[in-house]
Specification:
single chain, mainly alpha, 82 residues, 71% helix
């Protein structure tokens, strides 16, 4: 059985989480109504969302893609300045 497809808000959450590294900020960004929530409620929901298997897999996929684009090797530096 494959992973579920992400909702638009879950995709926004995953992208923002990879960008800022903070689940609460990512949750506020993706779910604007949560800005009025108490901090404990926000943290709990953000953590639960981050640990949904399909969301967590998307975060890992995005992090992998980001690290590949940021990979700097001695050869890449020499090619850049050659």
């Amino acid at each position: 059985m494959g992973l579920r497809k992400l909702t638009a808000k879950q995709e926004q959450f995953a992208c923002k989480y990879v960008e800022c590294g903070n689940a609460s900020k990512a949750y506020r960004f993706a779910y604007p109504k949560s800005r009025k929530w108490k901090v404990d409620s926000l943290k709990k929901q953000a953590s639960m969302t981050l640990h949904l298997p399909h969301v967590l897999q998307r975060v890992k996929d995005l992090q992998g893609a980001t690290s590949e684009t940021l990979l700097v090797t001695p050869d890449s530096v020499l090619r850049e300045y050659a």
